């Protein structure tokens, strides 16, 4: 299957030949300090800290093959055509796909990439290793050149990196004007660019950021000549792939020269050098963003020799390897390596947010509310330290009416109301915090987090985003206050209850939760008035049941009641005949929202935990019965059927049969299964329907929907997309993985694995997916992977593999081991294993299935931890107490489970 990509170690590192022959490839590089880069096989891409601070020109995916303003390094031998070690010369581009094309190979691992090229004409082998040290805002290009001929050769080398040096907003808005702000100087080591101001017609601000490119030989020798502007470097009529400076040997300016008002260029020439046969030399290019010249000088001193760079590269590799402390062993080594990248992707989203890679060209940076909570799933499984504090702070984004801020500011607990100044409410947003908090409690046993006191977010939005609070102003601040002006805090449990209960009453004409601005599918954004989401109503039904279980857990720990805001009592109506009335529900919601429209009383009263749990179960059961009776669609035969997922803005069911055309969406099936709305018999019918109407193995598996062949302006922009693109009928990885997770939760392991394996098979089939290893946001209609790296699908895939497939997860702080592995997942010896962190300890869990039986056919015959037998109470799983785990040493521990 892996025709072009080969894994080369146990850490996911891989290589691919002639990567420049595949379009749209790019690789992420980043530091913990803020610098974020994308780098292509010919070293295109960009580099930035945030929306307003781009070192290199911002790029979208189409720029990857259109732009020539890439990082470059030139080698010149007199009498020969100049040679680019990145492959970015006009001649090398012309030779591509011909018998003159040079050999090239890209090797990459977590946060580093090496490009190796062979020049037959010059007899040179060159490598360019790109990486960003974990703690510095500098991107390093480490270049080596080796003479493969049997004669001495003389060369001249040029480093060349165009410096954009301003906000991404200026790529089209005042591009030329903002170049006039540039103040450029050459130093002994390279070029500094310090614009006079940050251009913004709403209010220009002084600029203090310095964008720089430094260079030296591997021995620390400085350049001898500099080209501080684009015009200086490319020459009149020249281009980045045919710069006249390099081709014609133009002399540059000396160090300590000044330039201003033009596009900047980080280019310089080194002293000529000779290489004997087999001899090698190296060069270092440092490009970054700093707050002072002293900082730039310190960075240069830190990385100005080959040994320093090599040490930094090794430290970078070790650091990121340690972050991915999950390891899988199955019958397929390529899948195991693939899982390394899936495990790494949540770290990339923490660093990049949902923007700042070429396909992710929307928004202005940061993560959204949904991303914040789903990324915690993977953190809980890999790096659980401080996740409790993170979760606690995250609840500070909840409004007192149950809605929430939608954009995350810098650091934990900082929130912004919305993106682009648009007030919106996504109806699914209240769902995710409880899912994450429930996992946290199960993994840690920390039920006390529910009693932590947290403020509420406050801004001008009120009445669940339908009105403006005219009394609110900046002096009020962004925290909810009481009538006496004090910042109000409520328990984490109170936040959760308000989210879940308020949503219960926010219904449309079919007594289904209103769609509002959208749900998880942001492209369902044109049905705010009358749209309803059956899919997520199913999910909320499951959430209410989960929350009731957590309340009973609190009871079992000795709690009987908890203080909550007195206003919440309005939402605790338990008259089931009222549940049937849409108008009554709306009255209750309005009454509650009005009670906290501006300030809150601040008064609290104690509520019985058992009464609260019963109230939630009552609501969950009503929702389940209501959806089952109203939303099930019978297929054309008795073996098929599925749930309607939505109502459009005309109040019409979206799914079913439309003029003999089958309309089916995956989302409603996922959450009806996950929320325990679908019965086992219905799940079997859903699976048959999904396999019939949605499954396409050759493009990744389960499409998000069938082709409606309609624009549906009464539903959302997704229907304006070409069918098979993004939310309209692509194989959307996130929902396909959640489909697998839901099936596993309900015991349908074979069906769940089909969904997971279809995604991984397509991703690893480079001829189809055209992506580096990992899971993309979606596979389009021809199977190409799109919007790579920054997707919540990675967290859910990892979560599903650990907690469901391998069945290693927490239950109120204890460790449950309950495998759902299929026979095909065990190696030839009948073993499969996973390494995970739990309760601060590292566990290597090995399953032995010598008869290679399938899930459902085997039982647990024996189990031990570090050769100490574990009692088997149920033959399908074992439970290891928290007390037992706490008494273990801090070393790696072996759990062996024998299946028979």
Automatic annotation (TrEMBL):
Coiled coil: none annotated. GO terms for molecular function: carbohydrate binding; glycosyltransferase activity. It holds the Pfam family GH94_b-supersand. The keyword Lipid metabolism does not apply. GO terms for biological process: carbohydrate metabolic process. InterPro entries: 6-hairpin_glycosidase_sf (IPR008928), 6hp_glycosidase-like_sf (IPR012341), Gal_mutarotase_sf_dom (IPR011013), GH65_N (IPR037018), GH94_catalytic (IPR033432), GH94_Enzymes (IPR052047), Glyco_hydrolase_94_b-supersand (IPR010383). Its EC number is 2.4.1.280. Residues 319-459, 632-806 form the Glycosyl hydrolase 94 catalytic domain. Keywords: Glycosyltransferase, Transferase. Residues 109-305 form the Glycosyl hydrolase 94 supersandwich domain. PANTHER family: CELLOBIONIC ACID PHOSPHORYLASE (PTHR37469:SF2), CELLOBIONIC ACID PHOSPHORYLASE-RELATED (PTHR37469). This is N,N'-diacetylchitobiose phosphorylase.
């Amino acid at each position: 299957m892996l025709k072009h990509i080969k894994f080369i170690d146990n850490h996911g590192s891989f290589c691919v030949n002639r990567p420049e022959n595949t379009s749209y490839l790019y690789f992420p590089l980043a530091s913990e300090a803020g610098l974020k880069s994308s780098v292509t096989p010919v070293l295109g891409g960009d580099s930035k800290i945030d929306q307003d601070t781009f070192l290199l020109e911002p790029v979208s995916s189409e720029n990857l093959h259109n732009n020539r303003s890439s990082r470059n390094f030139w080698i010149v031998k007199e009498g020969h055509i100049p040679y680019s070690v990145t492959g970015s010369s006009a001649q090398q581009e012309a030779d591509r796909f011909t018998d003159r094309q040079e050999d090239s190979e890209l090797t990459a691992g977590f946060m580093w990439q090496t490009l190796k090229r062979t020049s037959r004409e010059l007899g040179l082998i060159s490598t360019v290793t790109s990486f960003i040290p974990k703690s510095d805002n500098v991107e390093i290009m480490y270049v080596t050149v080796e003479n493969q001929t049997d004669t001495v050769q003389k060369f001249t080398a040029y480093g060349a990196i165009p410096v954009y040096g301003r906000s991404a907003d200026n790529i089209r808005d005042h591009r030329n004007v903002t170049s006039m702000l540039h103040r450029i100087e050459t130093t002994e080591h390279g070029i500094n660019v310090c614009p006079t101001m940050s251009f913004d017609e709403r209010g220009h601000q002084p600029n203090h950021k310095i964008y720089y490119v430094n260079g030296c030989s591997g021995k620390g020798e400085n350049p001898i000549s500099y080209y501080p502007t684009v015009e200086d470097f490319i020459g009149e009529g020249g281009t980045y792939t045919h710069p006249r400076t390099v081709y014609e040997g133009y002399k540059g300016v000396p160090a300590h020269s000044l330039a201003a008002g033009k596009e900047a260029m980080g280019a310089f020439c080194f002293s000529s050098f000779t290489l004997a046969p087999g001899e090698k030399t190296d060069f270092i290019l440092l490009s970054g963003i700093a707050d002072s010249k002293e900082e730039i000088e310190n960075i240069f001193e830190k990385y100005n020799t080959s040994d320093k760079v090599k040490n930094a590269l090794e430290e970078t590799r070790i650091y990121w390897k340690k972050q991915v402390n999950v390891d899988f062993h199955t019958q397929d080594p390529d899948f195991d390596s693939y899982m390394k990248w899936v495990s790494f992707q949540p770290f990339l989203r923490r660093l990049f947010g949902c923007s700042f890679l070429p396909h992710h060209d929307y928004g202005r940076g940061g993560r959204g509310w949904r991303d914040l909570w789903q990324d915690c799933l993977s953190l809980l499984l890999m790096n659980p330290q401080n996740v409790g504090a993170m979760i606690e702070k995250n609840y500070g984004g909840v409004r007192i009416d149950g809605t929430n801020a939608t954009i995350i500011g810098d650091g934990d607990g900082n929130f912004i109301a919305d993106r682009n100044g648009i007030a919106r409410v996504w109806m699914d947003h209240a769902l995710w915090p409880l899912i994450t908090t429930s996992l946290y409690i199960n993994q840690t046993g920390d039920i006390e987090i529910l009693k932590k006191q947290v403020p509420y977010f406050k801004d001008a939005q009120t009445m669940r985003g339908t009105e403006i609070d005219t009394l609110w102003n900046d002096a009020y601040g962004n925290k909810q206050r009481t009538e006496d002006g004090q910042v109000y805090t409520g328990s984490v449990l109170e936040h959760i209850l308000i989210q879940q209960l308020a949503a219960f009453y926010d219904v449309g004409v079919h007594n289904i939760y209103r769609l509002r601005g959208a749900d998880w599918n942001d492209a369902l954004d044109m049905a705010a008035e009358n749209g309803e989401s059956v899919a997520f109503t199913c999910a909320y039904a499951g959430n209410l049941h989960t929350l009731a279980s957590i309340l009973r857990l609190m009871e079992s720990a000795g709690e009987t009641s908890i203080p909550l805001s007195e206003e919440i009592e309005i939402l605790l109506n338990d008259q089931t005949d009222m549940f049937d009335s849409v108008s009554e529900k709306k009255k209750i919601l309005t009454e509650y929202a009005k009670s906290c429209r501006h300030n809150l009383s601040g008064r609290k009263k104690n509520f019985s935990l058992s009464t609260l749990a019963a109230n939630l179960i009552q609501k969950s059961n009503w929702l389940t019965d209501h959806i089952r009776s109203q939303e099930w669609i019978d297929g054309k035969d008795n073996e098929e059927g599925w749930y309607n997922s939505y109502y459009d803005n005309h109040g019409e069911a979206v799914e079913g049969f439309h003029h003999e055309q089958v309309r089916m969406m995956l989302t409603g099936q996922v959450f009806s299964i996950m929320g325990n709305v679908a019965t086992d018999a219905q799940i079997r019918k859903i699976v048959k329907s999904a396999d019939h109407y949605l499954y396409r193995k050759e493009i990744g598996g389960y499409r998000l929907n069938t082709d409606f062949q309609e624009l549906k302006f009464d539903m959302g922009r997704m229907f304006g997309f070409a069918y098979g693109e993004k939310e309209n009928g692509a194989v959307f990885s996130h929902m396909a993985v959640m489909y697998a997770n839901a099936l596993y939760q309900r015991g349908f392991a074979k069906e769940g694995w089909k969904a997971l394996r279809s995604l991984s098979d397509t991703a690893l089939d480079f001829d189809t997916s055209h992506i580096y290893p990992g899971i993309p946001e979606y596979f389009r209609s021809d199977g190409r992977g799109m919007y790579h790296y920054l997707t919540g699908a990675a967290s859910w895939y990892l979560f599903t593999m650990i907690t469901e497939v391998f069945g290693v997860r927490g239950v109120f702080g204890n460790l449950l081991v309950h495998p759902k592995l299929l026979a095909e997942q065990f190696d030839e010896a009948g073993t499969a294993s996973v390494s995970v962190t739990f309760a601060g300890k590292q566990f290597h869990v090995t399953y032995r299935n010598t008869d290679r039986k399938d899930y459902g056919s085997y039982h647990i015959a024996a189990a031990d931890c570090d050769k100490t037998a574990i009692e088997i109470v149920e033959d399908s799983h074992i439970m290891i107490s928290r007390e037992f785990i706490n008494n273990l040493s801090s070393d790696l521990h072996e759990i062996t489970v024998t299946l028979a």
